[in-house]
Amino acid sequence: MSDLLRVDGLRKSYGGVTAVDDCSLAVAEGTVTALIGPNGSGKTTLFDLITGYRKPDAGRVFFAGQDVTGRGPGRLYRAGLSRTFQQARVFPQLTVVENMVAAAGHRWWRQLATPRVSAADRARTEALLAEFDLTGDADRIAAELSYGRRKLLEFAAVLMSTPRLVLLDEPAAGVNPVLVERMEQHVRSRHAAGVTFLIVEHDLSFVMRLCDPVIVLDAGRPISQGDPSAVRADPRVLDAYLGG
Amino acid sequence: MIRGAVFVVTLAVLPLLGLPHWVLNMLVFVLMFAALASAWNLVGGLTGYPSLGHAAFFGIGAYAFALLLHRQTEITDGWQPFAWLPAIGVGTALIGVPIAAIAMRTRADVFAIVTITLLFVVQTLAFNLHGLTGGAQGLSFPVAPFPADTFERPFYYVLLGLLVLAMLLTFGTLRSKVGLALATVRGDEDKARGLGIPVGGAKVLAFAVSVGLTAMVGAVWAYYQVGIIYPQFAVDPLVTIAMVLMVFLGGRGTLWGPVLGAFVLETGQQYLAYELGASQFYLIAYAMIFLLIMLFLPRGVLPSLAGRLR
C-alpha cells in the first residue's frame, strides 16, 4: 500500500508555544488511521496544516504523491482531501440539501448562473441523504437539527465531492451512544467503498474498534504508532496520557 | 412573479392619478430609498458584510452625473442625460472592485469601520476638491427642462426602473448558485472557502453590483436636485443609515424586506419631519425604531412573520 498522505517535518508555533513540532507521519491508502493524544498535543493544529487552513512554519505535506504544502483548503478539497470540524460546522441558515449542494465541489464560476439547487443537484444528494438517514430532513434549515444530526450532515456533505481522504475531527464527541455507533457504521461502509480516513478521537473504545493503525501524538510529534493492541501496550503512551 | 407584476403596475399607475405634488415628491424618495435599500441588501443582507460606506458611492454617482451636466449650458432633451446611467453604474462598479478586494479582507465590525472611513474620505474630497466639485459652494448644472406640473414623473419612473432592476438582480441572485455562494459566506466564510467555494470573488462581485446600483440612484437624485448639489447632501451618512435601517426593518437577505422597510420608514420619516417641523427630531425617532427592531425583531419583519406562520 502506498502513502496517500505524508507529512514531513511539519512545524507550527503560536507565539512561544510550538503546537506541532517536527512532525512526520504517513497515512497509507485504504486505511482508517487514528490520531490520538492528550489535550493540547497538536492534533487539531496538524489537521489545519494538512488541510491548508493554516500554513506551516516549516515542513512539507504530500497528498497523492504531490507536494501540496501551502495550498489553500479549497484547492485541496477539490483535489479529494476533505475534513470535518470538532464543532460540526454546517451552514445554519441553509437547508440540509443546500448544505449538501454547497459542498459538492462545483466548478463554481461556470455554474454561477445555474439554479441554486437544480434537479441534477438534488438527485446527486439523494443517495447520500438516504445513507445518512437525512432524507426526511432534506428541506429543513440546518439550525433546526440536533447537534448529532448536524454532525451527520457535515460528514455526509464532505462526501459530496467524492474525496479520497477524509479527516474527521472528533466524530464521536458530544453525541449519544446510538449515534456513535452509526458514525462507526458510516465510516466502515465508506471505507469499504474505497475512502481512506484519518480520525482524531478521544473515545478510545471507538478508536480501538475502528482504526488501524493508531498514531499517538504528544507535544506536537508522534511518539508511537502501530496496531491498536501494540499502541495500548506501549509505555510511552501511558506516560503521555497519565503524565510521566 | 404575480406579486411582483402587481407591485410594479400599481406603482406605474400611481403618478397618473393626479396626486398632489408633495405626495409624488414623497413617492420619488420612497422609490429612491427602496432601490438603495435593495442595493445595500446584496452586500449587507445576502453576503452579511455590513457596509456603512454606501453613501460614498451614492455621492460618486451624483457627482459623476452633475459633472457630466455641468459642462452643458442647457439641456434640450430632458430624458437624454438618463442615458448616462448605465455608464455611471458600470464605472462605479469597477471602482468598487479594488475597494471591495481590500476592504473585504476585514469582516463584521471592522469592515463597518473601514467602509465608514471610506464614506468620510469621499465626503472630505467632495468638500475640498474645489476645482472639481465646487466644494461647499455646491456644483451647479442646468435644470431638467420638464414641465412643472409633471416634473416628478420622469424621476419617478427612472427610479422605479432602478428599483425593478435591483429587485430582479436580488431575485436572480437568490435563485442561483451566486446566492448559494453568498449565503455560505454569510453563514461561515472559512468553512465555505474550505469547500472550494470562490468566496472572495463572490463577495467582491456582490459589492461591485451593489455600489454600481447605488451610484445610479445617486445620479438620478442629483438630477432631481433642481440645478445644484451640495457635498453634505450628496455624501450623507444619513443615506447610509437609512439604507441599513430599512433592510434591518424589512428583513436582511429577503427580496421584499428592503422595499417594505423603505416604504414604512421613508413615509414615516417624511411624516415625522412634517409634524415635527424642519427640526432634526425625526432622527431620534429613527434611533428609537432601530433599537426597537433590534430588541423585538432582530431578523426583521418579513423573516419574523414567516417564522410565526410556519
Walkthrough of the structure:
The complex is a heterodimer of chains A (244) and B (310). With 244 residues, chain A is α/β, with parallel strands linked by helices. Chain A has two domains: 1-80 and 163-244, P-loop containing nucleotide triphosphate hydrolases (Rossmann fold), CATH 3.40.50; 90-162, no CATH class. Chain A is built from ten helices and ten strands. Chain A has helices at residues 43-50, 73-78, 96-102, 108-111, 119-131, 147-158, 177-192, 204-210, 228-233, 235-242, and strands at 3-14, 17-28, 32-36, 58-63, 66-67, 81-83, 165-169, 196-200, 214-218, 221-226. In chain A, strands 6-7-8-3-9-10 form a six-stranded mixed β-sheet, sandwiched between helices. Chain A has a four-stranded antiparallel β-sheet with strand order 2-1-4-5, with helices on one face. In chain A, strand 7 (165-169), helix 7 (177-192) and strand 8 form a beta-alpha-beta unit. In chain A, helix 3 runs parallel beside helix 6 (147-158). Chain B has one domain (2-236). Helices cover 74% and strands 1% of the residues of chain B. Chain B is built from 14 helices and two strands. Chain B has a two-stranded antiparallel sheet with strand order 1-2. In chain B, helix 2 runs antiparallel to helix 9 (199-224), helix 4 (85-103) packs across helix 9 and helix 12 (257-275) runs antiparallel to helix 13. Chain B is globular, with a radius of gyration of 19 Å. Chain B starts with a helix and ends with a helix. In chain B, 47% of the residues are buried. The mean pLDDT of chain B is 92. The A-B interface holds A 51-53, 72-75, 77-78, 83, 85, 89, 91-94, 98, 101-103, 105-106, 108-109, 111-117, 158, 161 and B 174-181, 183-184, 186-188, 190-198, 201-202.
